[in-house]
Design a protein that fits this description.
9 strands; 4 helices; globular; 32% strand; 169 residues
């Protein structure tokens, strides 16, 4: 195994991140555009990259989420998680996930939300959410409470950062 590192995104990483995200999502434009808009609109809470040797091979981003019935709580939306296809299934996505969850706790977020594959994200403690979402997703809309019990008894609709409405993801 080469030298593997997870670190904060730096200004010189923009093009490499865009290439990784585009490759991970089958050369679609929606996800790279989402990352660009989140960055441009300053809606990013955390942006981490995975470096293998001297190559940027992964990226994960946390942006703001609001839940109107829980104004005092702080939430993040995890999207997208991207790993270069040739580097998938070697632990980079898992390392990005465990690091971004720890950083979200350090930042004082109460819960994380995501729209994704339950079989993959359940290994990190995510479970199907009873909170509504603007996409009408059911089983694929998941949350992880970083402050245990913070979502108990809450209802409402989780609203992603504005960049999500302005991209085709």
């Amino acid at each position: 195994m080469m030298n593997r590192l997870i670190r904060d995104e730096e200004s010189g990483d923009t093009e490499s991140i865009s290439r990784v995200v585009r490759a991970a999502f089958g050369d679609r434009d929606g996800e790279p555009e989402l990352v660009r808009l989140l960055r441009e609109r300053r809606e990013v809470l955390i942006s981490l990259v995975a470096i293998e040797g001297s190559d940027l091979v992964g990226h994960v981003m946390i942006s703001m989420i609001e839940l109107e019935t829980a104004a005092r709580l702080r939430f993040g939306g995890l999207a997208p998680l991207s790993v270069t296809p040739s580097m998938q299934s070697v632990g980079i996505g898992s390392l990005l996930m465990s690091t971004v969850i720890a950083r979200s706790r350090d930042l004082g977020l109460d819960a994380l939300f995501l729209l994704g594959n339950p079989a993959y994200y359940s290994r990190f403690g995510f479970g199907s959410s009873h909170i509504g979402n603007e996409y009408g997703a059911t089983d694929a809309f998941m949350h992880l409470e970083l402050s245990p019990g913070c979502l108990s008894g809450l209802a409402g609709t989780a609203r992603y950062a504005s960049a999500f409405q302005d991209t085709d993801t």
